[in-house]
Amino acid sequence: MRVSTAFNRLLKIPGASVSAVSITDTDVEVELRLRARRLECPCGHTSPATYDRSTRRWRHLDLGTHRLWLVYEIRRIHCPHCGVRTEHVPWARPTARHTRDFEDTVLWLAARTDRTSVSTLMRCAWETVTAIINRTVDELLDTRRLERLYRIGVDEICYRHPHKYLTVIGDHDTKTVVHIEPGRSTESLAAFYEQQHESDLDSIESVSMDGSKAYRVATEEHVPNARICFDPFHVMQWVNRALDRVFADASSANRRRIELSSGSWRKVRIALRTGAERLTDQRRALLDTLTDQDQQVGHAWRLKEQMRDLFRVVKPSRAKRHLRTWIDDAAHSGIPAFTMLAQQIDKHYDGIIAAVELGISNGLIEGINSKIRLINARGYGHHSAESLTSMIYLNLGGIDPKLPTQR
Ligand SMILES: [Zn+2]
Predict the structure, then answer these.
(1) CA triplet 100, 105, 106: central angle to 5 degrees?
(2) How far, in Å, is the centroid of ligand 1 from the Cα of 73?
(3) What ranges do the domains of the chain cover?
(4) How close is the Cα of 93 to the center of ligand 1, in Å?
(5) Is the pTM for the entire model greater than 0.85?
(6) What does the pLDDT read at residue 382?
């Protein structure tokens, strides 16, 4: 069998056949010829006339320890729609210097592991991994994600201190991120609304958010019929922060009085934050020891659990009464952190009730926050808005990249 025939069978490059192969100690170069006569513009238009030509190499998946390159004399055409453009080749995305199989493998890995592992395994630079993600994610995003949105959530994320933010818009029903805009101003969210068809905006029933005024203003203007809700995630953040303050006061003032070993103080802090139903017997016992000896911590902990109940177990028809009782209880608790919190909750009463009545859960915003921590931990960095945006889409945009062997 001829070498070129063997490589034809091995590589099965769509729409092309192998014309020559050269092998060195480290690399294999495979020269390709396109089967189609007519040149194709990336826009889909075809043309018989070549504008000019040049040789290009695409990195393909390794062949054992050899790097494999596809080589082809690529042509530019004069497209009546786009002007002078480089022809479309079936094995790679437009302007790419890696094959589609190579890029898809990088994406699949990047959604699962850290950047060092991806670049080591694929034998390419870190920057290449990031560039591939940034460039291909747009193509893979499903444009249907923006249709039929009916309960959306919007949140800001800080990607570089100080004051570098993105506005992330998600779909509560699919738990996916549907859109990302730079900044966190009224204009950031308004830009998203302005890109939607009017009929798509009409279907939006509710918009959940944190307490910020900017998003409320944009929503009231562009989707006046949508109900504005406060995300349970942010409400629980406020409550947990207040609880932390009560605990910090207790541990600094009463450390000597309360009988807990120093290791237990650390554990009990975690126990306080853990949901009551998820506590182990040991943690529960620690918590009881502390709350028996410090009434304020005990009261603060019960208030935290009662707020969790509002979003988890309280029937929507009883939400108003539950929250009103909570506010009264917190306001009269005599615990400064909670009397202040009671005022803040009271101010957002309508938005919190709307979240319960419409069944807005923590899932979306919690998912966004934990994915961002993961992206950080995997070393993809937050240095540019573009790379963070791509990584959020890759992990939360419903992309689900496939390996070449899974297609
Ligand atoms: Zn074209």
Answers:
(1) 100
(2) 19
(3) 1-97, 143-231+361-406, 232-357
(4) 15
(5) no
(6) 63
